[in-house]
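The records we work with from here on pair a chain with its fold. Each token is a code from a learned vocabulary of local backbone shapes. A record is reproduced here so that you can trace the correspondence yourselves:

_____
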Amino acid sequence: MLVMTGTGTEVGKTITTAAIAALALGQGQRVAVLKPAQTGVVPGEAGDLDEVVRLAGKGVTTRELRRYPDPLSPEAAARRSGLPTLGPGEIAAAASALDADHDLTLVEGAGGLLVRFDADGSGLADVAWALGAPIVIVAQPGLGTLNATALTAEVATRRGLNVAGVVVGAWPAEPDLASVENLHDLPNAAGAPLLGVLPGGLGAADHDTFVERARAGLSPWFGGEFDPEAFTRGASVNK
């Protein structure tokens, strides 16, 4: 089981989740993706899990526990809509039930590690602790990412959580100097290895192209072929 968190919103967390799921499916694994809270999406509208299935393949099992129409934190969205909030116990129970029947379960959070699910301040960190599951941090490539990644990792380690590694969720076609240099520094900020760099715009790819680029962009730890040292050298040469 892996808990997927981001350093913020729009960093490529869903794309990274789908990429990991796609490689696991390609290895014949039974894969489940749990989205505890989907915000900013009305009933009947496609959400993050629909994107995961579209990209990774129909073989992935998906489950969503709550859906809130406002694009806010789950707690704020629940408060505005009058719908019930989520607690870490309910999320952990759902994840454990899925994991009992699957080889890999991915739990995709909403935004960052401390985004609130309920009025008690419970967040994805509490879910990861309850599950005893390692965290994958999905980060943006550019300026500011080192601080956000270091803060996420520090919170995780202070709470006794294991950070498995960091993945850059959307690498630009023309990276700036900060993005290239951050490849060297992200492992230090995370206190964990760089486990992948996925190209920006990957969500627009067809299934076969998506799987091919996921394999190239993710570490062998996920079943991919990504070599962080070779990628970093190549990016540096082009700068």
